[in-house]
Design goal:
The complex is a heterodimer of chains A (about 290) and B (about 200). With about 290 residues, chain A is α/β, with parallel strands linked by helices. Chain A has helices spanning about 1-25, 45-65, 80-90, 130-145, 150-165, 185-200, 205-220, 225-250, 260-265, and strands at about 40, 65-70, 100-110, 115-120, 285-290. In chain A, strands 1-2-3-4-5 form a 5-stranded mixed sheet, with helices on both faces. Chain A starts with a helix and ends with a strand. Chain B has a domain at about 30-160: LemA-like domain (de novo design (two linked rop proteins)), CATH 1.20.1440. The chains are: A alpha/beta (about 290), B mainly alpha (about 200).
């Protein structure tokens, strides 16, 4: 009998819950659909700037796997900036799952507000202080002068530059940056050695597999030192694998799978390059900074 | 004879396993672990805020030394919040949980009062060091909000499993699991209320 008595409130609560959920969805500002790397719902960018920025963001993702996306919006319709920006970032799931390497730049001209939302995985590089400086030094002065395309371009360049270790936010060095130049050679060497060893092991039966796997591995490992060095590392690793296998087996083999190897392993982000674009399942913990002008 | 015995044993074993998984034993255990994880993240962010405060107070002191009261209030609230041991047991004790929440709430309001006072010092506001700290504090407050929301959602999920039929039977008789305390809206309002500004 008490069970039957309990069912009634349950039903009531669940129907109430339904109302609350529907009501909340109706009140809250909708997250716009992710139509590309640049979602310019606020119409701040001329088409040519938008196209060139899209290309840059695409190239950055191909290099590093990070998904950087811009959203402009005419107004927040009374929503708190941080809450909305977090909602957009987590709905779009920018960045890869597990790596959480997504960044959202949100510009709302109607409320004169800016936010850089940083995924968990990039919080160490794009710290709150650094993102705040990017907003204050790169974006706000240009916005104040009415130059929206310039401010957005400078902001995105600073974000990409910070991640790739090219951008220094005025005065002091950022607290946690990309690997310093001292660690570059050792990173390169480690990548070559590990790639070669794994390649030899993998290539025990099929040399092509070993060459492809080892080359791709050392490319990926050396990626933090830059694209050119990463390519060099994978070439060095492949040479190492071929030489070592030749010593072990006493015979040469045709160098096959190299090209296929790194194009498969190196850029395997799982995101399509052109056309449709979607988030990779990354998560956001509320890192980043806000600003206004 | 022996083989039929074994069949019965296997069937019985399968039945027990199916019943246990069917009545939410694993669900409740899994959710329990997930709420603990979400709670650790909340604590982590509160700790991050506590770690920021000494630096912030020092920088503000350099420019606004005679805002002693406000600065002391922040330091005091910080040590009070740090004084509450945030163990997992806290989650099972609603009263201790409320106390913890209240202490963190006091620290939040002391900090926001400090940030209002700071508005009177243009030199301080122009200081890059201060602005970095301010952005870190804002970021941390935002992370606290996010981790609290995730904890709230997780606890709601857990509490639902503990209350709903038939998983409530497992929770009650097998696990002796109880509903977990959650952050309350009333406190949230008090914390979110902007501090009064007097000139």
């Amino acid at each position: 009998m008490s069970a039957r008595l309990r069912i009634l409130p349950c039903l009531l609560i669940s129907s109430l819950w339904c109302f609350i959920v529907c009501g909340a969805a109706a009140i809250a500002l909708d997250v716009p659909p992710l139509t590309g790397r640049i979602v310019d719902a606020g119409h701040l960018l001329p088409p040519d700037v938008s196209a060139s920025l899209t290309a840059e963001l695409e190239a950055h993702e191909a290099r590093t796997g990070n998904q950087v996306v811009l959203l402009t919006l005419p107004s927040l319709e009374g929503q708190p900036l941080e809450e909305f920006s977090h909602r957009v970032a987590t709905t779009w799931k920018l960045g890869r799952k597990g790596t959480d390497n997504g960044v959202l730049l949100l510009v709302v001209p109607g409320d004169r507000k800016i936010r850089i939302e940083v995924g968990y995985g990039l919080e160490g590089v794009l710290t709150d202080a650094v993102t705040s400086r990017i907003i204050r030094h790169e974006i706000v002065p240009r916005f104040k002068a009415g130059d929206f395309p310039g401010g957005i371009t400078a902001g995105l360049h600073a974000i990409l530059g910070t991640i790739e270790g090219r951008y220094q936010p005025t005065e002091r060095q950022s607290p946690a940056g990309a690997p310093s130049s001292d660690s570059l050679p050792s990173m390169f060497l480690i990548a070559v050695v590990v790639g070669a060893l794994v390649g030899v092991i993998l290539g025990g039966h099929r040399l092509g597999l070993g060459v492809a796997g080892g080359g791709a591995l050392s490319f990926l490992m050396a990626l933090s030192t830059g694209l050119l060095l990463a390519l060099l590392a994978s070439v060095a690793a492949v040479i190492g694998i071929l030489a070592l296998s030749a010593i072990f087996r006493g015979r040469h083999s045709p160098g096959g799978g190299f090209a296929g190897g790194w194009s498969e392993g190196g850029f395997g982000g799982g995101f399509s390059g052109g056309g449709s674009f979607s988030g990779g399942g990354g998560d956001f913990g509320g890192g980043g900074a806000s600003g206004d002008w | 004879m022996r083989s039929s015995n074994r069949t019965w044993l296997t069937l019985g074993f399968a039945a027990v396993i199916l019943t246990i998984s069917g009545c939410g034993y694993n669900t409740i255990q899994g959710l329990d672990e997930e709420t603990n994880q979400a709670w650790s993240e909340v604590l982590n962010q509160y700790q991050r805020r506590a770690d920021l405060i000494p630096n912030l107070v020092n920088v503000v002191k350099g420019y606004a030394a005679h805002e002693k009261e406000t600065l002391e209030a922040v330091t005091q609230a910080r040590s009070q919040a740090a004084g509450i041991k945030a163990t997992p047991e806290l989650l099972r004790d609603p009263q201790a949980f409320r106390k913890f929440q209240a202490a963190q709430g006091d620290l939040s309001s002391a900090l926001s009062r400090l940030m209002v006072v700071v508005e009177k010092y243009p030199d301080l506001k122009a200081n890059e060091n201060f602005r970095d700290l301010q952005s870190q504090l804002e970021g941390t407050e935002n992370r606290i909000a996010v981790s609290r929301k995730r904890y709230i959602d997780k606890v709601a999920e857990y509490n639902k499993a503990v209350r709903f039929f038939p998983t409530n039977l497992t929770a009650k008789f097998l696990l002796h699991a109880e509903v977990k305390p959650n952050f309350t809206v009333a406190d949230e309002r008090a914390v979110a209320k902007p501090p009064d500004v007097k000139f």
